[in-house]
Predict the structure.
Amino acid sequence: MKIVVNSLEKIANVEIFATIGFLIFFIFFLWMGYSVYKTPKSYVEEMRNLPLDRDEEDLGKDKKLKTNH
């Protein structure tokens, strides 16, 4: 750990990298929160029920694909 600390101390204005990294993380976190908050409820319901909405035709296709391999 001392090697890393000593190397970083020699870099001029190294503290700016920590600030930039934090800002990037914080902005990304806020953006993700906003996009989740703005996602329409109908889209969430559709995605939630997607695995359950399969009809018999889809199940038959899956069985045919499994037997062909």
User: Anything to note?
Assistant: Residues 2-68 form one domain. The chain has a mean pLDDT of 82. The two ends are 54 Å apart (CA to CA).
